[in-house]
Amino acid sequence: MAGMKIKLFLAWVCLIGCWHASAGQDLHFFFVTPQSEPAWRGDLHNLMQQAAGAADLQLKWHDLSRVRTAEKLKAELRRVRGNDRDVFWFYYFGPSAYNNDDLLEDFPYFELGGEQLFLTKIHHLLLASPHRLVVTMLDGANDRSGLIGRLEARADLNADRMGKLLRAQGDLLITGYSRYQSSSYHPAHGGVYSTAFFQALQYVSSTACAYAPIWAEVLYFADHYLERMLKGLRKEQKSFVRLNVQGHDFPDGLPPHGFDFQGERGPTYEYALPQFPLPPPRPSARLSLPRPYFGGSGTLGDVNRILHKAITSCGYYEKSYYAVPDGFALATIMEQMDPNTAAPLPPPDRWEADVSGLEDFNLVKYLEALIFGKTGSFRVFVFVVTPVAFSTTGATVSQEEAREWLSTGMNKLPRSLRELPFTEEHQCTVLIYEFEQRDHGEARFVERSRFPSRVHLERAHILDYLVKP
Length: 469
Hints:
The chain has 469 residues and is an alpha/beta fold.
């Protein structure tokens, strides 16, 4: 009997020991966003699942996006009780702002149910629960940049390196932008800083990184990635951080390796196309190109190559791309044409922004033009590729607006659109916007061109370079 009691006692001790060893092996991730069903939530969940697994932690995902009041959110955060082995990670993505009337409040706030919730208050609430590590993070969404950053999972995460990050002792406060700055985001792909940060977390945790697996490195690489991504937008955005993790800061506050990034390319990103209005403003003429012009095209990238080759062969080297539903619009530079034939004027008059001068100097004609003015004709081609049937609006576009299409669009078609299939429903429609300027006056929109749309394309020689049906 005594032996049996000893065995039961030992079994009980072993059970308690096993429970104690496994208790607190959780990463509690609190996800909060006012966006409804964000497409990138799944990517973030998978990434955190991978990170937790690499650090031998159990991910406990708490989606609190449906919480509508500040009190309810705080109650949900208090409800989750941890112990001194738990990791608490709060992540908010959405509109936010700094209180510039209170410069002692270093971090921004977001609103929930009409109440301002400062990031520091959330952080202190989480610190009140037993924990090993607390990360409180906000990525504001107050500058719709159109920049698409893609979260990509890495296959070379190292368990020991990730463990040293997620099993560290301390706390971090992180916001993706500093006071008097704005935070760039894309409505379908989330915050730009989030992309930079989580990609940096993976890199520092990977076997590819030769630097110490410390939080200071993660933050350093995140800002480096962010700077590279935003370079094309010509804006300044830098994170603001309070790092209080033992042994995870740089000795002198600066990385010992300087700006040596070992060729690490960082996150994949691209700039989203601005939208071209659909239905578009009423054109002077339009033509739907038969599908055989794009024979063999399987993707929108194939269609773009055909159009690009045709217009550049005709001298339209400057162009801009826009997005339309499930497709794109391609606008050419504005040109001057012969008002009697619709043929482009010879360069350099072809690209002049105003009525062209005399081709051959003649004193009488020069004086007539100086006194009475001249007539000039201008046009822009817009190729719209979409499966969506559309009409045109009753609105007209000014010459200046049409001229700006060249500068406000993108210089290339992003990969995300190039890879879309060119289906049987897709149609390429050419919109021709024509303008006339008389007697030094403002150019007026030509509501109905004297020339059929096909004549415009033939005289510009664009049809000569398309694959004929």
